[in-house]
Each structure stands twice: as structure tokens, then as C-alpha cells.
Amino acid sequence: MTQKKILLLGGSAQQLVAIRAAKELGYYTVLCDYLPDNPGQHEVDKFYQVSTTDVESVYNIAHKEGVEGVLAYASDPAALPAAIVCERLGLPTNPVKSVEILGLKHKFRKFLSENGFACPKMVTFGPDVEIEWLEKQLKSFTFPIIVKPTDSSGSKGVTKLSDMECLSDAICYADGYSRNKIIIAEEFIERGFPHVIGGDIFVEDGKIILFGEMACLRGNQGRSLIPIGEKKPTGLNVSQISSIRLELQRIVDALGICFGEMNIEILLDKDDNVHFLELGPRAGGNMIPIQLSDAFGVDLPKANVLVAMGKKSNLNPVEKDGCFCHYVVHSDNDGIFRGMSYSQEIEPYIYRKCIYKHPGDNVEAFDGAGKAVGIVFLHFPDVETMNRLYPLSEKLIIPELL
Fold it and tell me: Which residues are paired to 231 by β-bridges?
């Protein structure tokens, strides 16, 4: 029997789990990645050094190789090209229009508003916008506001402004992370529940079969916009969980999502209204699928591969005891990596360490997920222990630099 082929878009360290899952399931693996030093190329059957956002090149490779599925695992930029290629070739995919809406913040905000979901006031513009015009538009906004690119991920290019004094700097910063050169400014949502709700869900046959909501840990003792970890359970009450899950299924229905893992980022305002900050049409980064696989006793990377190939996911999630957390190891400063330091207080609760850096490697100051040193997974026996130690992760898990 001819070995079935899958095309994987992206071969970074975080995407290796999908490559390995496909290999374990017996598929012939084809990889596209524009980086010449990506680690995935050493584990696949065939590698093409091609950008995952180059739709025509990806299409030609998929057609030439005769693949039966395409997976953009944990990659925002590759999600839409994957959907376009699959639609052209008649392979399993979610609707291209919906994937495009989810991948562009301004289109997503428009969709939310038109479909009756909670949505902040917003305005879009280009990097060369006349500041006077923009300031006039923002006069009716309630500050603080958020300025960010519409097509980036991992909190890259995001600025929170309490007034208009640094507006030009915020636009310049956002532009540095923008490919489509469309920037959005929107009102900051004042939270009722103190944490951003992140994590992933898994959809099959149009229904959510795994709800993996987690509470986000933010850097600099919560002052940063950049997530540095997620914890489960969240601390939400029963009513809040019910509202979030109802809105999640409602938006999945409205978008016509058929299958696959989706990354969520949600806020509850002071009236417990559910605000979708992001809904990524792909598995979450920072190894969230691994964390949720541990928490539910499943294998999400394999499930992603299976549904991309038109198969059933075989998921039967059952929540395990205890509290599952992960922490994004990072540094606030540039330097040379020397090694890791773990406090004796927290180390007994660490059950997996995935450190990307080796002694002598360069470490850059953390301003987005791409500059992480690694991921550490923790399992606490109870909420009390988790709430005592997990918020201190930045002080207890430290990359040592020269």
C-alpha cells in the first residue's frame, strides 16, 4: 500500500511534535519552511526551503507530492495558505473565508460586531496615517487604548497607551511587526475577571469536544501584555465558564468551523460579557497542546494530524487531578545563555523541561513569544499550592546569562 503523505507548514522547535506525531501515525512527511536552520528538516521525509506564506509555491509542492492533508500546526501566518491550498485541491479544510477572518484582527472585529458578539470600539489605518486625522478619530475613544498590527501573533508589536502622547511611537512599533501594513487601535477592555482566558479548544464535526480554557500569567508581575504561561484550573466560577463555552460554540457555528484545534484569548468585562481578543484557526503556541494533552490524558498533536488527513481525532478527553501549568522561560535582558536555575521551592513540581537554548547561545530581551528561552511544565497537587508558587515563576525559574 502506498504511504499517505501530509504536508506540514513550519519546522520550528515547537512544531516538531506535529512532525513526530505524523511519523508515528505512519504518514510520509513533507515540510515547508523558509528558514535554512529549522530543526524539523532533519526529521521529515522530504524538505522544501519555501516560505509557508507563499501560497503558489506551497500549492505546487502539495500538488506535486500528492499529499492528502496539509497542517499549519501552531502557526498563524501559515493557517490561511494551508486553507487556500486545501480548498484548491479538495483536501480537508475549514472555510477559507473564516480562516481569513480569524487571521486578520480588523476583519475579526468587524465579524464580531456584525454577528452580535461583544466588541470594543476600534479604528484601522496604515503606518503613514496622518496623526492629526487619527487623533480626531480617537477623541471619542475611552483610554487606555491598544495599538497593534492586524496580522501578527504572540503579542508582537502591541502597545497600551493611556493618552495620545506616544501614539507615533506605538504606530512605528506595530508597523515593525506588520506584513499587511494595516494597524488597529481599539479601546482597552477593563476586566471583571482578573486574568485573560487563554488555551485551546478542539472541534470535530462542528462541535467543541474539548474545552481547554486556562488563565494567562503575564510578565513583570502582571504588568506586561505578553503571556508567559497558562494555568488550569482558571479560577472562573460555573456561570462564567458556562458563558464562555456558549459563546465559543456560537462563534464556531457562525464561522462554520468543521474541525481542528483553535487557540483562544478571551476577556470577561465587569459585567461578565465575553470578549474575544483572538480566536486562532490553529493549535496554540508555547506548547499549549502538550500541556492540555497532559491535563486531559489525550494526544492533541496526533489529533491535529488525523483531522487534517480527513480522519477521526480519536479524542476522549478526561480531566486529570491536580493543576497543570506551563511557564515560558525568558529574560528581560540580552545576553549569552549559561544555563538554568530552578528554585528548590518550585522544582519538585516541574515534570518536563523544554529548553531551546544551549550554553553559548544568544538570548534576546523578551518582547514576544519568538524570543523565549524554553518552556517548563508544572503539575501542582492543589489550587492553594499553585496560587502560592506559580505567580512567582519569574523569580523561581531563571535563565542564567553571561
Answer: 215, 325
Q: Which amino acid type is present at position 49?
A: Q
In tens, the pLDDT along 259-310 reads 999 999 999 999 999 999 999 999 998 899 999 999 999 999 999 999 999 9
Its pTM stands at 0.91
Query: What residue type is assigned to position 41 of the chain?
Result: Q
d(CA 319, CA 301): 17
Work out the burial of residue 121: count CB atoms within 10 Å of its CB; fewer than 13 is exposed, 13-18 middle, 19 or more buried: middle
**Residues near 184 by Cβ (< 8 Å), separated by ≥ 6?**
105, 106, 109, 122, 123, 124, 147, 148, 149, 150
The answer to whether the beta carbons of residues 38 and 11 sit under 8 Å apart is yes
252 contacts: CB under 8 Å, gap ≥ 6 = 201, 203, 206, 207, 208, 262
What is the distance between the alpha carbons of residues 98 and 75, in angstroms, rounded to a whole number? 16
User: Amino acid letter at 328?
Assistant: V
- With residue 386 as reference, give the H or E element that holds it: helix 383-389
> 372 to each of 195, 271, 329, how far by Cα in Å?
21, 35, 6
**Do 157 and 369 form a contact (C-beta atoms < 8 A)?**
no
pLDDT in tens, 226-242: 889 999 999 999 999 99
Alpha-carbon gap, residue 63 to 250, rounded angstroms:
35
Distance of alpha carbon 164 from the chain centroid: 29
d(CA 184, CA 125): 6
Rounded Cα–Cα distance for residues 105 and 108 (Å): 5
Number of C-alpha atoms within 13 angstroms, CB side, residue 390? Answer: 29
What is the Cα–Cα distance from 299 to 201, expressed in whole angstroms?
Answer: 13
Residue 125's H or E segment, with its range, is strand 122-125
Question: In a 3-state reduction of DSSP, which class is residue 398?
Answer: strand
Note every long-range contact of 29-36, with CB atoms under 8 Å and residues 24 or more positions apart, other chains counting.
29/5, 30/5, 30/6, 30/61, 30/65, 30/67, 31/7, 32/7, 32/8, 32/57, 32/58, 32/61, 33/9, 35/11
Q: Please give the backbone phi and psi of residue 388, each rounded to the nearest 5 degrees, phi first.
A: -80, -40
Give yes or no for a contact between 397 and 372, defined as CB atoms under 8 angstroms apart. Answer: no
Q: Which residues contact 36 (CB under 8 A, 6 or more apart)?
A: 49
